[in-house]
Here is the input.
Amino acid sequence: MESTRRDFLKTAVVTGSVLGLSLDFPGILRAASAEEISASNAETTGYTYCDGCNHVPKCGIVYHRQGDVITRIYARTDFNYPANTLCSKGYAQLQEQYHPERLRYPLRRTTPKGEGPKWKRITWEEAIRETAD
Here is the structure.
């Protein structure tokens, strides 16, 4: 059986996804507090990839974490990794993940367009219902 470039890329993406999921990269959807960072002094290192801009092959990331909080990331340059640089989207992953003003719940706009926006917190059920309508 002859393999095409497309088949190779499909296999590479599936393999990378499986490896990335098996590396225990925590998907934390909240801000990290100083207590959480200092709760575990043991820093561990892990490897994953960035999916910020959908390059193929994915950009390799080395991450360091204390407990469940990722403390720093940088590009993976060992083992001649095929994509060994990170763009600004890759380096911004920690800001996106842990920014204190990050949205963590749905909001509804309470003023008409053209005026200054004001927002009201709503439940997830309301947001799903309004989106479906």
